[in-house]
Amino acid sequence: MPNHSHRTLGFAACAGASTFWGMGFFFGKIALAEMSVGHMVFYRFFFAVLALLPIMLLHRPRLNKREWGWLLLCSFLGVPLQFLIQFQGLALTTVSHASLMVGTMPVILAVGATLWAKERLDRIGWLALAASSTGAALIVFGKKSHAAGGPTLVGDMLVVASLVIALFWVLLNKKLMKQHSALVITAYGLTVGWLMLCIWVPLQYGLPPVHGISVKAWLALAASGVLCTATSTMLWNWGMTQVPASQAGIFLNLEPLIGSLLGIGLLGETLGLTGWLGGAIILAAAAVLTTRSNAHIEDEHLIA
Question: Which residues of 123-143 are buried (b: 16+ CB within 10 A; e: fewer)?
């Protein structure tokens, strides 16, 4: 099992990943003002692959045929399927509702890790997860949304569907990283996913636009690719080799917190008392989970 210092660094990596992921909706909204969902996702992963190119040049994958099959499945789930569904859902609902749906991910992940990854979360862990999800709900209910359209059941359900897909992406990644470096799995997994987008996006949305895109949109796309995709996924995958998935999931609730703070500071939104209370609950739950809760894993062959 990872030692205590590795465990602390693992939690820090997961928190950093969730912080960057929390910026994704902000940058995505900027780009979506000038292009379709498919084109935005395509360019997001294009910039992510550029950032990961040095890793692929320095580290060759040593996967066997069966592992390549798992990587292909993982890439399909984690890139084109998850992201196209999630952002299509966002286009059909409000940012507040989408954020609320994302707030359910730690519970989904904890349940999934318990059922399929042989992890057992203790009572304190489950209480922390419940409290953190409550905090996420308080944030999105307390945030004043300026979305032009109202929420729809279809949009909300698409976001939830993308989170269930993300669960299997997380667990499959962890399976692969028992035998291979997190750097290799991240770099090649995202690259394979982007190659899938290269086939699907032109067929479904047309060729990605090159001209007529503002510098602001290009910068948002680059930031979403380098920070919110390449860096965040690398941090998350490495963190998952150090801590149980059921505990790491608590940090996914930092996403609505970060999104709300960006909305306040840069988009002129307001966060009421319930929103600030929700943020405090999320941070308190994370502290409790990482210091007092214990998750037991039957399969202890995690890599450092």
Answer: eebbebbebbbbbbbbbbebb
